[in-house]
Write a structure and sequence with these properties.
single chain, alpha/beta, TIM Barrel, two-stranded antiparallel ribbon, 11% strand, disordered C terminus
């Protein structure tokens, strides 16, 4: 039985040496121009098979951003638009990505379509030297400072 964890890195990305490498860690998708199309296709197929609407979650990415990659916000925006799906906005993942030098939270939020935000995750995190992740202090301050950027009819109670 497969445990669902990715164990290899695909060798099809620009700049990645040929071959397959065991990582022992679930890796994020490559954020290339082709990536959103592939993700959207999977989301549409899975949603149709389950007869349920799906949302794309803003994922965490511990890898250094490469010059040929889309920004995190542009990637999620394109996936949600191509799949015609909503976004599950995980603020801890955005904060972790920003902390790891990928994209600041404000820039990410400016790139995604706010009308597609269907759910927001506020909790999460643990300290890890391997990934640079840590608990976020004062969630309420981050939440309040970004509310104007992420508020939309889909988010209002």
């Amino acid at each position: 039985m497969h445990d669902g964890a990715a164990r290899t890195w695909p060798s099809t990305a620009p700049g990645v040496p040929r071959g397959t490498y065991a990582t022992g860690f679930l890796l994020p998708p490559l954020q290339t121009e082709q990536g959103p199309r592939a993700a959207a296709r999977t989301i549409r197929q899975t949603g149709a098979a389950l007869d349920l609407p799906l949302a794309v979650e803003t994922g965490v990415n511990y890898l250094r951003k490469q010059p040929w990659e889309l920004s995190d916000g542009a990637f999620v925006a394109r996936v949600s638009e191509l799949a015609d799906c909503d976004i599950l906005l995980d603020l801890h993942n955005l904060w972790t990505n920003a902390r790891n030098g990928r994209q600041c939270v404000a820039d990410f939020l400016a790139e995604i379509p706010p009308q597609r935000i269907r759910e927001i995750h506020l909790a999460g995190g643990s300290s890890s030297r391997a990934t640079g992740s840590t608990r976020i202090p004062a969630w309420s301050r981050m939440w309040c400072s970004n509310w104007q950027q992420i508020s939309s009819p889909a988010c209002q109670a």
